Amino acid sequence: MSWSTALRAALGIALLTGMDAVMKGQMRQHPFALALFMRFAMGGLCALAVLAVARPARPTRDSVIGNLARVPLVVLTAGSFFYSISVLPLAEALTLSFLAPVFVALLGGLLLRERIDKRVLQALAFGLAGMLVMVWPRLQGHVSGAGLGVAAALFSAVSYAFNLVLLRRIAMREHPTVIVAFQNVGPALCLAVPAASLFEPIAPADLALYLFAGALGVAGHLTLTSAYARAAASRLAAIEYTALIWASLLGFHLFGEVPLYTTYLGALLIIAGAVAVSRR
């Protein structure tokens, strides 16, 4: 794997973590469903603009069906994740999302009949131990509230794993810009009605921030896709955990968040398990 590919992957992770930070701030300003709709609506505009420039081949019928099937999962994954970062420190919510590779391996075995070996079970044990270390202060009442945030982050990791399993079936034969367009425009259409019921005037500065979040999301996904096209997923897996660095820095500077030491202890266990899965 070349340095340029590694840097491309790291840039993609940084862009997506930046989007998360922007959305965390916007969810403090507007109703949750409205903020989620605006993120996808603006992301959809950016994705369609990229699609118009790239001009990929028309998607096949099977591709359209596969992409549409992912839309509800994208809504569930993004909705639960963004809710978790609205009530949890950014670094903690992102660390819980690192459980996704373990769930992908388990679901791959259950749904695609891929082999589940001893490493997958060991990774699951590490991941669960890391999760318990992270949430232990909350279970003991040392940190008030946010119980639903932990549950939402875990649900997001599971639904994201389902999403990736479905994505495997279309990613190898579909242009990335088409996939990104579907996963932005589709959720925006799904969220239009609930967002309309909560609509309130949005200042131009906030519109610009939503457009910035949408652009970061599209750019991040396309950059990561480009990196994964140049190197095996197992070679790039460790780079994904640089999100914890960005989340810690952005959470501290933008929101004054100082994660508990248990967040980083738990992260070590979860990352150890995820790396074991990626090197099967």
Automatic annotation (TrEMBL):
Keywords: Membrane, Transmembrane, Transmembrane helix
Species this chain originates from: Bosea minatitlanensis
Family named by the database record: Belongs to the drug/metabolite transporter (DMT) superfamily. 10 TMS drug/metabolite exporter (DME) (TC 2.A.7.3) family.
Signal peptide: none
Transmembrane segments: 31-53, 65-87, 93-113, 120-139, 145-166, 178-196, 208-229, 236-255, 261-278
Protein name as it appears in the record: DMT family transporter
Domain EamA: 14-135, 148-278
Subcellular localization(s) per the UniProt record: Membrane
Record membrane topology: Multi-pass membrane protein
One Pfam family recorded for the sequence: EamA
InterPro entries, per database record: EamA_dom, EmrE-like
